[in-house]
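Molecular record:
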Amino acid sequence: MTRPRTPDTYFDAMYRDTEDPWSLAERWYERRKYDLTVAALPRPRYRRAFEPGCSVGELTRRLAARCDAVLACDRVGPAADTARRRTRDLPNVEVRRMLLPEEWPEGSFDLIVLSELLYYLDGAAFDRLLERTLASLEPGGTLVTVHWDHPVPEHLTTGSGVADRLAGRPGLDLLADHREEDFVLQVHRRPAPDGERASSVAAGEGLV
């Protein structure tokens, strides 16, 4: 029988003895990946961002510099507590503990970032989270996905597997597809109400 998600006991064990079990604040790999993620955003500024699975808040801090408001959440209480503490100097950041996709915030977002999250879900849970994501993403809004691309026993797929599941999904236009040996970073846009496809960043500034 297929698991609907990686069990909570895995995350509880990871955070039991350290507040940052993946050394997200220390590793150059992680810091570089976060900087690339923010650099890939096609707009200079966003109104309201949602970051599920924020862990200890390292990417959250970077998103806060590009957004008027950021709502971040994590399913693990200690992770959410650490993220809240690490972002308490940023008045435009709110951190909650939430179990997705069963729980979901109200309102809409012009940016949603799914970082190191989707490979913990399979089948109906994956599809339900994407449905709720698209329902909350404003027309013309940006969806960013970035995931580790090596097999891990606790992961139900890889970054490439996530990209395959997103490929051709109705309601998303692919703007950028950055792939390295270690991770897959993609940027999608929800089409405008008239169905017009997104223009490139250069075209948006009249350069082409």
Notes: Residues 149 and 158 are 5 Å apart (CA to CA). The helical segments are 8-14, 28-39, 58-64, 77-86, 123-136, 159-166, 201-204. The first strand starts at residue 46 and ends at 52. The longest helix spans residues 123-136.
